[in-house]
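ZP: hey, is the adenosine-5'-triphosphate complex queued? I don't see it on the tracker
AM: it wasn't, my bad. submitting now with these inputs:
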Amino acid sequence: MRLKIDQLSKTFNQTQAVKDVSFTLEAGNCFALLGPNGAGKTTTLRMLSGLLKPTSGTIDFEGFTGHDIREKIGYLPQYPSFYGWMSGKEFLVYVGQLAALSKQESIKRADSLLELVGITKAKHRRISKYSGGMKQRLGIAQAMIHQPSLIMLDEPVSSLDPIGRREVLNLMEALKEKTTILFSTHILSDAEEISDGLILMHEGRVLEQGLLTELHEKYQSQKIELSFKAFSENQLAVLSALPGIREVTPSRTGLTCFINDPILARQSILAKTIEENWQLNQFSLAKMTLEEMFMEVIGQ
Ligand SMILES: Nc1ncnc2c1ncn2[C@@H]1O[C@H](COP(=O)(O)OP(=O)(O)OP(=O)(O)O)[C@@H](O)[C@H]1O
């Protein structure tokens, strides 16, 4: 599986919802499309799923450009609707047949997917009696009925209570082994917990993207945690003015220095500490949290 999108844009009347978005997804990973409300996540996913025609740009799925790729991908919309009077199994058999599988094949796939998403015991129960988490898990099974190599899930956990969220996140964690997942979320901790890669969107544009390990590495050297035996406001002011340092804020254990230049910042902090004879207890390059990275990237 390889999905490459290049300079994808979508304009609705006057609103440019998605602007020149480019990224590539490789097989076997879970990617989070992360961004606040209105960032353009749903619009991007709807274009990728073939539900919306891009204003410009290309979608290349395994070398196919400009083709209908719906049979190769699975999609769970942000607000899925089910026939509440159907049982979970009836629903999956129905969507299997809609996806052009034979009835026999649909029944076989439905049973194995119900097992996979943990709904076997409730498969004959009406969907209207399912919990929110069960409905989302059924929605994920629906997206996988035709064995796509990529599934796209639009805000799969946002509307769920903590139990439902946990069920769906655990399922996604397990599914990562079987299929490539692209899911949208505005919840940073969900992206951090289960994704391998991140595409950060804001106001229609991609501001940052990469594997989480690469992003942590890139932003890790931009923060130094310090703790001193005694702390004074004067220390904060002195450190803030040093070369290579952008901002210093108090932290739970001491001070956090956000830096522009790691080498310069390290030298100037250590030189100042010796000069002032401060008692340094801790000096460490720290990983930025995803939230700090997000704020940094969107410039706030
Ligand atoms: N059909 C439409 N007609 C007009 N404007 C639209 C349409 N769909 C989306 N938009 C606008 O495009 C922008 C991006 O919306 P989109 O739903 O893609 O964002 P999102 O990141 O998915 O946010 P949310 O989490 O709130 O769904 C918003 O300003 C939205 O109002």
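AM: back. The chain has a mean pLDDT of 91.
ZP: great, adding it to the tracker
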